[in-house]
Amino acid sequence: MKTFTPIAAAVLFAVSGAAFAGGNQSLQHQGGFGNHAESYQTGFGTWFNKIEQGQYGDLNQAYASQDFEFWSRIYQDQYGTYNGAYDFQAGGAFNIIHTTQVGVYNTSATTQTYEVESRASTDQFGHYNLSFINQTGGYANRATVLQEGDGNTQSTSQLLSSHSTATTTQYFDGNHAETMQWGEYLDSNILQIGLYNVADVYQSGLLNSSSVIQGGIFNMASVNQDGIYNMQSTVQLGLCNDASTSQYGIGLQASTLQIGAGNVADTHQVGLFDVATKFQHGLHNTAYSSQ
Question: Which pTM was predicted?
Fold first, then answer.
């Protein structure tokens, strides 16, 4: 029985460990006071990945991890104070995460697990903004987030999806958006301009499309789509408007426009190729339709 000296054992371990990961790059640049950055590229099959972290300010936190990942990229840039960026890639290939934070106490977390050729981008400008992106088990998905203001929150999940796109844009303060996609070639666009607007979009199926635009204060929009080639558009301009759209079928179309305050619109569609249109302007109008 052959035994190894401690030095020989250490060399053998290092050589065998190198076979599990290689060709990776990590670049870190810090300017300021008390910044903290961590970069991990480890584990079996972790090859030719890249992490770039730039911190220009004070007391920022940046964490990036690539495990069992191939030819993927993580880019993190922080300008300001007390920002936190947390990005993870595991079990995939050819993915990109890009996070930019300018301000104070912004937080962003992005996870790509068993994804291939997907992209996630988060840009935060202001204070106390919060963003979560989760892409799991899919291919060629796109998630884009822009937050400009204070106290905005958003969550985007693309689960077992392919070729799906989710875009969330928030201006001013206290807006909340949530997008969940489970299917193929899904498209969601949320634009919030104002204060304390809420938008929730849930999509499953194939080729469904949703657009939500909110301008004002305390507007609420909810969208549920399941099926094939359904389309919906919701526009809210004013104060305390509420719009809900549900589509379950094929080729359904719905559009809602609310201008004013306290208006309520509810659209429910189950079937094939139905069309529903609502236009409310004024105060405290209520409209309901079911097809």
Answer: 0.93
